[in-house]
Amino acid sequence: MIDLAIIGGGPAGLSAGLYATRGGIKNVVLFEKGMPGGQITGSSEIENYPGVKQILSGLDFMEPWQEQCFRFGLKHEMTEISTIKKEGKIFKIFQNDGKVVEAKSVIIATGGRPKRTGIKGENEFWGKGVSTCATCDGFFYKNKEVAVLGGGDTALEEANYLTKMCKKVYVIHRRTEFRAAPITVEHAKNNEKIEFITPAIVEEIKGDNNGVNSIVIKNTQTNQTSQLDVPGIFVFVGYEVNNNILKQDDGSMLCECDQYGSMIVDLNMKTNIEGLFGAGDIRIKASKQVICAAGDGATAALEAIAYLDSHK
């Protein structure tokens, strides 16, 4: 039987594995269907991780994590998990190949993914001018004009954030009304650096070998199209957490989740199910930053150690 199963091999999962094994748990297994590293491996540049002065690609940035995290005995099972159930005090981990593994405790660190729009050029320029993280990529557009697509709280909050370094931010939304909280809308409308383009949609993202250089916008009332010359567009049309493994046979979830499907945890990454922890982007109010996910993983591992010690 596994002492601790970690599901997900991104920054949260790897950090959890490092702290758990170095903290004395003997039998720790990380389940990740591919090579560990997580969503961040798709990033073209990382320059905001403390202590790492070089600007690295996500792939290069995560490479030493694997060596360090497996140094203390963390095991890697390259397999996909279909679901997790708890029977009594034991967790049962069901793999897609039919194998079932038992564990005393579990850390879920499966993360999530921003929704894509399907706009022409989006996939081509993903990470090359198309971004879903103003905190990560906003600095690259210092003193430049950028576009933000979306009308929810995240879109307007990130638009406000981008005005701290960008010369101008165009907010494009398909309706004239916004889903964001009234106070968030008010702050955005009072920001002189933000210009609203509504009701409108983005029909195409254009660029060249250097990345995005313009977007084609269509007014949904007049059907007129126009071109906006910007080197970057930030897309905020929703976020999906990877929570399928929490779904039970009766349609319920293994632990309490919010309306978006994110795991509800406390400051110690504990869920309402004893021995089950959530870390990284899968949890509520996640900052979606590598450093925050790593901190979550460390916290969850320390709590798992305490849990296992108390149930010997």
TrEMBL record:
InterPro entries registered for this protein in UniProt: FAD/NAD-bd_sf (IPR036188), FAD/NAD-binding_dom (IPR023753), Ferredoxin-NADP_redctase_2 (IPR050097), Pyr_nucl-diS_OxRdtase_2_AS (IPR008255), Thioredox_Rdtase (IPR005982)
E.C. designation(s): 1.8.1.9
Domain FAD/NAD(P)-binding: 3-297
One GO CC annotation: cytoplasm
Gene Ontology terms, MF aspect: thioredoxin-disulfide reductase (NADPH) activity
Gene3D superfamilies per UniProt: FAD/NAD(P)-binding domain
Cofactor(s) it depends on: FAD
Swiss-Prot/TrEMBL catalytic activity: [thioredoxin]-dithiol + NADP(+) = [thioredoxin]-disulfide + NADPH + H(+)
Keywords: Disulfide bond, FAD, Flavoprotein, NADP, Oxidoreductase, Redox-active center
GO biological process, one term: removal of superoxide radicals
Pfam families per record: Pyr_redox_2
Top-rank lineage group of the source organism: Bacteria
PANTHER family: THIOREDOXIN REDUCTASE 1-RELATED-RELATED
Family of this protein: Belongs to the class-II pyridine nucleotide-disulfide oxidoreductase family.
Protein name per UniProt: Thioredoxin reductase
Source organism per UniProt: Helicobacter cappadocius
